[in-house]
Here is the input.
Amino acid sequence: MGNGWHERFSAEEYVYGKEPNAFVVEAAQQLPAKGKVLCIAEGEGRNAVYLASLGFDVTAWDFAQSGLDKTEKLAEEKGVHVKTELRNLLDVVWEEEQWDAIVHIFGHFREDIMDRTLAGVKIALKPGGYYVSELYSKEQLQYGTGGPSLEDRLADPVKWLTAFDGYFIQHFYIGEVERTEGRLHTGTAHVVQSIFQKRKEAGK
Here is the structure.
């Protein structure tokens, strides 16, 4: 992330569309009703606004103010509220046990930021909370239908399984999906999907 994202989202067009990611729609059915949800690297707000429309208390983080501005605009258009916060995942402070779910859709970062982010997610989830993600896999380089052009920015499924070792795996998928998300994510893609639940301590 960086100023390039601010410039990309400064266009009037919603470059990834206004409709939610298809996996978010599917995963939302598994989340606790009306819980506190954090969407990280949320871009222009399509997933945050959708989750808010379902009654969740949603906060969107992004490093591009233009993306957050468009999130607020889309929320107003849809008649819902989303709290927006300008956050840099490189130095954000993760508060303990704050969220019922953390949603991470196509947020690709260099390795040190990703490691820090996944560790932060584990801190910030409440016991029983969910981490929901869809990310392009390293195989996506062969498809050219969206995502980073650098292999080290793409998801290795082993990394995610290792990072969330001990969590309940409600869903884990590696393979092809069809995505039509604005002009930048269109066509057959290769992804890693996760729904990991933080286990509750015994007796709680």
About this structure: The first strand starts at residue 36 and ends at 40. The domain at 3-197 is CATH 3.40.50.150 (Rossmann fold).
